[in-house]
Amino acid sequence: MITETSSRGPGERAGLTRAAVIGTASRLLTERGGPGVSMRAVARELGVAPNALYSHVRDKDDLLDAVLDASLAGIRPPRKLADPRAGLTTIMKQSFGTLLRHPELVPIFLARQGSRGPNAVRLGVAMDALLARAGVADPDQARLALITHAIGTAALVRTDADAPLSIARVRRLFETSLGWLLDGILGHGSGTVRD
Question: What is the pTM of this model?
Answer without folding.
Answer: 0.82
